[in-house]
Specification:
Elements (H helix, E strand, L loop, with lengths): L2 E6 L11 H4 L4 H13 L4 E6 L3 H11 L5 E5 L8 H9 L4 E5 L21 E4 L4 H15 L3 H4 L1
The protein binds 1,3,4-trihydroxy-5-OXO-cyclohexanecarboxylic acid.
């Protein structure tokens, strides 16, 4: 059974209240429950973690090696300037997919750069919560091989 970890970074605990015209009206708990149930349809076990603290996110990434088959990471604003999170991703042998709910490229210029992009397996931006589900499928394909997951 594949084991995946979703990490949501700063301010994503405010989903549902925070700028709903950008991030929607569903809460972090809604998102996490949807993802756990989605992953279970593919016989995958999904854990969720959220923190507003850079060091806690780094420690989760370190601890994922040997425990998880992949990480789905929305690092929030840390995406744009945290070289420490970038180095943490590069330090572990676990595939990471970067997800952003909003289309960061259609927003303020500071959101156009991702310092973690060079060390992740892939990026999904602008597709709302669906981006997390697509990241789960991509990681399961990597973990289990072939196209079985996509054909379901
Ligand atoms: C975000 C985009 C970031 O620029 C922002 O700081 C966030 C959320 C997104 O999911 O669209 O906190 O990562």
């Amino acid at each position: 059974m594949a084991r995946l970890l979703v990490i949501n970074g700063p301010n994503l605990n405010r989903l549902g209240k925070r700028e709903p015209h950008i991030y929607g009206s569903d809460t972090l708990s809604d998102l996490e429950q949807q993802l756990i149930s989605f992953a279970s349809q593919y016989e995958a076990e999904l854990s969720c973690f959220q923190s507003n603290f850079e060091g806690e996110i780094i420690e989760q990434i370190h601890a994922a090696e040997g425990t998880y088959d992949g990480i789905i990471l929305n690092a929030g604003a840390f995406t744009h300037y945290s070289y420490a999170i970038r180095d943490a991703i590069a330090s572990v042998n676990v595939p990471v997919i970067e997800v952003h709910i909003s289309n960061v490229h259609a927003r303020e210029p500071f959101r156009h750069e991702s310092v973690i992009a060079p060390v992740v397996s892939g990026q999904i931006v602008g597709l709302g919560f669906a981006g997390y589900r697509l990241a789960i499928l991509a990681l399961l394909e990597q973990a289990e091989g072939g196209e079985r997951v996509w054909k379901k």
